[in-house]
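Supplementary notes for students who missed Thursday's class. We covered one full example, reproduced here. Read the sequence, then the structure, then the short commentary at the end.
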Amino acid sequence: MKGIRSGVERVHERPLSRMGRRRFVKTLVAAGFSVASASHLSASHFEAVGEDEVPIVYAYAREDPDDPASIAPRVRSVAAEWYNDLQAALSSYETLDPGAIDGLIDVSVVPGDGNDRTKISVDVAHEGVVSTVDDLLEDTPVEGSVIEATAEAEHEDLEPARQFDIDSGLEVPGGVACGDSEGLATLAPAVYDPETRTRYFATADHLYAGSESTELALVSADGRVPIGQVARHYPREDLALIEPTDEFRPAHALDGDESRLVAGQFTRMGLADLKARSAEIHKISAMSGHTTGTIQAIDGITCIYGDPCKRGQLKWGTQSDFTDGDSGSVSYAPDPENPEQVLVCGLNNARTWWPGEDYIWGTAAYVFEEEYGYTF
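Structure (token representation):
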């Protein structure tokens, strides 16, 4: 693992504090850091860590809870060898085109824990595909499972366990039941678009699949209460953004016995770090309520629904903790710098239903930020 370690050693030897910003970023990129990471790091971050450590941007979080635009990077240090192993696997992984490999159903990255190396996990239709992927990725360990993707079972209609109390106020948190005219889903915490300075309601886009409805309503004890109209569909990421049309407004918060302030979201590196530390993450949803679990894999690409394959998928928990109507909920973990608030890991869109696999999955929050600039 000499690549990043020798790069870090060279960086530590350079007079970083006297460099201009452009030269500083070029120095980090030349040492093996990604452009995104380099652009959010400073000389002081390197001065604060040892020679065997690397600063990473693990999250983006609001500095002022009342200002959704006050998002700033959060930085922590990790072992250089762990980072190097992960980056090497990610670089190899990014060369893979799952759509071009017949029989490849799903592929994802399983970050190591400092003892075990980072692996690439594949779900395939037949054993020969594992060997194909192994040959393509060369030095990166590959683990594979042969699965038979069966039809998803029908589920009985259930009443949502978590509904918003219409009389409790006009700020609506995530984790409560919502729907169009007939379907049922879970409301996500507010999504902020810095370009338009708009906070949107959000939920799973497949709520509107096959429907002409563009309405979003809260599901309450008094019936369905309209709160907005769909403004943007993102079927690839399974996200729908809904513009408020009434007095109700989306809140950067999650429902629960104690309301949880949502301060921002984890980056891809932040999720890898959570996985490496076997950190517990959580979910609050309309049907199954509050559940916990650990991350199984990050940066997944799943072709289980056919073309186009869904990218940036986070796998965590177990399928028994997720049911119809939970789609649109988010997974989250406590904010390391302020445990009274939380950071979002990803949007929960589905669960496994086929034999041999057991997890909840959906698009990681960092995908929305990288692709569209959106933050929770």
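Commentary. DSSP finds eight helices and 22 strands in the chain. The chain has two domains: 2-84, 148-376. If anything here is unclear, bring it to office hours.
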